[in-house]
Amino acid sequence: MAAQNLQSVPDQPAAPGAAAPAADQGQAQLEAEGQAYFDRVISEDSRIEPRDWMPAAYRKTLLRQISQHAHSEIIGMQPEANWISRAPSLKRKAILMAKVQDEAGHGLYLYSAAETLGQSRDQMMDDLIAGKARYSSIFNYPALTWADMGAIGWLVDGAAICNQVPLCRASYGPYGRAMVRICKEESFHQRQGFEILLELSNGTPAQKQMAQDAVNRWYAPALMMFGPPDDDSPNSKQSTAWNIKRFSNDELRSRFVGMMVEQVRVLGLTLPDSEVRFNEDTRKWEHGPLDWNEFKEVLAGRGPCNSQRLERRRQAHDDGAWVREAAAAYAHKQSMKTKEFAA
Ligand code: 3HC
C-alpha cells in the first residue's frame, strides 16, 4: 500500500460570509483524503508510518504512551543499578550490568520512536525532570535485598513482556518495530530473574525466605503495572480502536497471573494471593483485590521512592551535561567538514 504523505497548507482565516478561500478548501480536501487513508490502514490492520497523515489525537496518544514507556525504561535502571556493586559474584555483576545497559538501550529506541512524532528528546527529558511526565508506577518501589533483583526480573520484566508482546503489532510502525527487539531482550531479563530466584529458593532456608519475601513485596505492584481496571481506564477504548492496544488492562493482568501460577511452582515459592484461581466459566485467571488507592498515590508522586527516583534522574542529567555538549560540538564540527567538502 502506498503511503499518503500529505503536507499541510497554512490556515487562512475566512472573512465572515465570504466563500471559503481556495487554500482552506485545499486543506480540507487533504485532511479528508488523509483521514480516509488512515481509516483504511487501521481497518486493514496495517501500519501508519511517520510521514503519513494521522489524526492529531492519534499522534498525541502515541506520544503520551511512547514517551511514558521510554521514561519507564530510563527510570527503571535505578533500582537495579543500585545493586551492581553489591551483586554476590562477578558473574552476577556482569549480568546485571548488561541488563541495566539493555534498559538504557530500550529507552533510546523508544525516545527515537517518539521523536518521529514531532517532539524532541530534550523536551521529553525536560518534562520528565520537571515531574510533568509519567513513568511506570513499579519503579517507585525500593529494591531492598539481592532477591529483589530476582523478583524484578521475574515479575516486573515478566509483566512488561506480557504487556509488550502485543505492542509489537501496534499500528504505528516505529513503535511496533522497536518493541520487537525490546521484547527479545526482556525475555532474557525475565529468565535471569527467574534463575536468581531458583538458586535462592534451592539455597539455605534464609535464602529461600529472602526470595519469598521479595516475591511477596513485588507481586501486587507488578499486577498494577498493567494499569487501572478496565472500567477505570479512560484511554483503552480509543487506543484499542486505533490498534495501539490489542488487549485490555484486565485481560493482560489475568494472563500474567496464569503464567506466574505455573512458574512459581517450579520456583518452589508461593504467590502472596490466596484468591488466585482459574474461573472455568469465564476461562480466565482471577486474583485477589489490589489496593488501587496505593496505585493512585504512586501516580500522584507520593509512592515510596518517587522523589528519590526523580532526584537521581536530575542529578544524572546534570552530570551528563558535558557529554551532551561534547557530542553536539563534535557533530557540528563533522557537519561543517561535510559542508566544506561539498562546496
Ligand atoms: N504506571 C504509571 N501510570 C500508569 C500505569 C502505570 N503502571 N498504568 C496506567 N497509568 C496511567 C496512564 O498512563 C494514564 O495516564 P495519562 O492519561 O495521564 O497518560 C492513566 O494511568 C489511565 O490509564 P489507562 O489504562 O487509561 O492508560 P493506557 O491506555 O495508556 O494504558 C498502559 C496504560 C497499559 C501502561 C499503556 O500505556 C502501555 O501499554 N504502555 C506501554 C508499556 C509501558 O509503558 N510499560 C512500562 C513498563 S516498565 C518497562 O517497560 C521497563 C522494563 O524494563 C520492565
Automatic annotation (TrEMBL):
Q: Write down the Gene3D superfamilies for this protein, in alphabetical order.
A: 1.20.1260.10
Q: Which GO terms describe its molecular function?
A: phenylacetyl-CoA 1,2-epoxidase activity
Q: Name one GO biological process term.
A: phenylacetate catabolic process
Q: Name the InterPro entries for this protein.
A: Aromatic_CoA_ox/epox, Ferritin-like, Ferritin-like_SF, PaaA, PaaA_PaaC
**Comp. bias (Low complexity):** 10-27
User: What GO terms fall under cellular component here?
Assistant: cytosol
SUPFAM superfamilies (UniProt xref): Ferritin-like
- Signal peptide annotation: none
The segment annotated Disordered runs over: 1-27
Q: What PANTHER family does the record tag this protein with?
A: 1,2-PHENYLACETYL-COA EPOXIDASE, SUBUNIT A, PHENYLACETIC ACID DEGRADATION PROTEIN PAA
Q: What is this protein called?
A: Putative phenylacetate-CoA oxygenase subunit PaaA
List the gene name.
paaA
